[in-house]
Amino acid sequence: MHGDSSNSNTNTIINNNAANNGNAANSNTMPPPCMVREQDQYMPIANVIRIMRRILPTHAKISDDAKETIQECVSEYISFITGEANERCQREQRKTITAEDVLWAMGKLGFDDYVEPLTVFLNRYRENENERTSLRSEPMLKRGIDYGPSMMMAPYGAGFHVGHQQGIFDGVTAMGGYMRDGSSGGGGPSSQASLANHFDPFGQFK
Amino acid sequence: MRQAGTYSGILSGGISGKTGPHLLPLARIKKIMKKSGEDVKMISGESPIVFSKACELFIKELTQRSWMVTMQGKRRTLNKEDVASAVMATDLFDFLVNLVSESGNSGEAPPPLELDTFASS
User: CB of A139 within 8 Å of any CB in chain B?
Assistant: First the structure.
């Protein structure tokens, strides 16, 4: 009987897996438990990556440590803004951090380019909520046209050139409502090129 | 059933009601907000919603600036050092300086760009 070698067989299997992974020492295969990231303090990495890919050209690759770094930066951003918003609430002796507090904090901390698109976003959300509760219905198309400029492209302006333009204008071409000259949103490369030259996201706010 | 329709290009998934799909999980956002300080008491329902869109804008801006550094190095893989360089070169991201340097930046990052010239005025 070779039963006495059963334990060593189990160990051998583990060692073989390590060898199959190209590691000479099996201690390199598994990260020690203390090095596992606590994920619930971050945005899910799949969501983060999905948003990154919308802005990057299709051929771009992202290293794992870059993904993690950006994931950490997002959490830091939320904390940073929330801290400022919370201070304001305390000064004004209010207990609840509101959306307005968040927007105010963003403006104060330099993210003023975000405030306008976020305000539009919030107003549309509120309209949506009111409609749901009051059971009114309006034609979707009517709301779509006066939605306003793309909220995603504001900080970048027309000067930004990426090797592959498609990724950059992703959000804009999807917005049927933006093209004020009446052409339906997005079209071929020529419409994107003209958008690059004449892009003025806040034109209708001036 | 409400059509995602006009909203889908902007909100990518649509707001189809209070519990409709947003880009980033609201409960997670709320958790991170609460962790930001001992004295964070109550958070309105709309705050995480504003953040879900704000974080999207933030990720896009940080990614874009990082990619510019990658391109400057004639590479196609956006790595952590590119993110660190973008943070160093952008005043708006000063609050991230400690975060990107504490895990040991290799020190081989390219010279800082003047990325703020691309910011909208």
Answer: no
